[in-house]
Amino acid sequence: MADVSKSKLPPPSNEPFKASIVWSNVIIFIFLHTGALYGLLIVGELQLYSFLFAMVYAFLGGLGTTAGAHRLWTHRSYRATKPLRFALMIFNSIAMQNSIYVWARDHRVHHKHTETSADPHNSRRGFFFAHMGWLLLKKHPDVAKYGKEIDLSDLENDRIVMLQNRHYVKFGLFFSLILPTVLPVALLGESAWNAYFSVGMLRYAFSLHSTWLVNSAAHMWGMRPYDVNINPRENYLVSWLAIGEGFHNYHHSFPYDYRTSEFGPSPLNITTCFIDICVWLGLASHCRRPTQEMIRRKKEKTGPPA
Predict the structure, then answer these.
(1) Cβ distance 278 to 248 under 8 Å?
(2) What percentage of the chain exceeds 90 in pLDDT?
(3) Cα–Cα distance measured from residue 187 to residue 53, given in angstroms and rounded to the nearest whole number
(4) What is the pLDDT, as a whole number, of residue 12?
(5) Which percentage of the chain shows pLDDT scores above 70?
(6) Using one digit for the tens of pLDDT, what is the confidence trace for 159-172?
(7) Alpha-carbon gap, residue 252 to 151, rounded angstroms
C-alpha cells in the first residue's frame, strides 16, 4: 500500500469541540433501530430456512467489511483477483456501512491518528461516541483536515471501488434491504413482513453493531500483550461477533498483517480462514504478515513487563 500521508502536518490539536447533531442521521438510526427491535420481537415467527438465510447473509456482509473494506482495501494486506474483488464489493454493499472508498478513508485516518481529535471515532470521547455517536454528530474539524492528507490514489484507481462509490445508495439499499426481503419470499415462501423486519432490518442492525464494537469495546476492554502504550485491546467477544476483528492490540501493532492476529485462522477469526481458502483457490495471493521474530521483539519492547 502506498504511504497514507501525502505531507507532514503538526499533531492534531486535541482541542475540545462541541459538535452539532446531524439530525438526518439521528432520524435514520431511530427508524432502523425501531424496525430492528420489531424484527427481534417477531424473529421467532421466521421459518427455519429464512433464519438460516439471514445468518448466511449477515456473514457475507461481514466478509465484505472484514476481508474487503478492511484487510484488502484499507490495509492492502493481500491481493485479490478481479472476481474476488467484485464479490467482496457486493458483500460490502450488503453490509451498507458507507462505501468502500469512504470506509477505507476513515479507517486510514483512524490508524494514522488513533485516539486524537483527527480520529473519526476517537474512543477518548466515550463508549457511545466511539460506537455510533460519531455518525450522529458533526465531525471534529481535524478529521476533515487530516483526512485530506491521506493518500487514496490506490482506491481512486480501482474501478470496482469507484463503481460502488458512485452508486453506493442504490447498491446499499438493493443488497442490504430489498434483496434480503425479496429472496426469502420468492424462494422460501416467507412473508414479506417477516422478511423485511427480521431478515432485513434486524440482520442489518446486528451487523452494524458487531462492526461498531471494534471501535468501542475493542478500544476499552481486553488485554494489551503487544503494546501497553495504546488503547486498542484483544477482545475475544468482539472477535467472535466481528469474525476476527477483535484482536485489536495486535492489529494496531501490525496493521498490514492479513490475519489481524498472531494466531491466524481459528473459530474466532473466520475472515482469515476465508482469505486462506481464497488463496488455495487461486483467488488471493501475496498475503502480508510479520515474522515471529518481529512479533517477539514487539512484545519485548512495548508489551507488559514480564
Answers:
(1) no
(2) 90
(3) 11
(4) 75
(5) 95
(6) 999 999 999 999 99
(7) 19
d(CA 20, CA 133): 11
Report the alpha-carbon distance of residue 53 to residue 72 in Å, rounded.
Answer: 26
Helix axes 179-188, 48-63, angle to 10 degrees: 150
Q: Torsions phi, psi of 8, nearest 5?
A: -95, 130
- Asked if 245 and 271 count as a contact pair (C-beta separation under 8 A), the reply is yes
pLDDT band at 4 (very low <50, low <70, confident <90, very high): very low
Q: What is the pTM of this model?
A: 0.93
How far is C-alpha 265 from the geometric centre of its chain's CA atoms?
18
Residues 93 and 164: beta-carbon distance below 8 Å: yes
Cβ-proximal residues to 288 (8 Å cutoff; 6+ apart), any chain: 76, 77, 78, 256, 257, 258
The three cell numbers locating residue 266: 481459528
Cβ(286)–Cβ(79) under 8 Å?
A: yes
Domain ranges of the chain: 23-225
Q: What span, in angstroms and rounded, lies between the C-alpha atoms of 204 and 199?
A: 8
Q: Is the pLDDT of residue 306 over 80?
A: no
> What is the tens place of the pLDDT at every residue in 73-101?
999 999 999 999 999 999 999 999 999 99
Where do we find the cell 489481524?
260
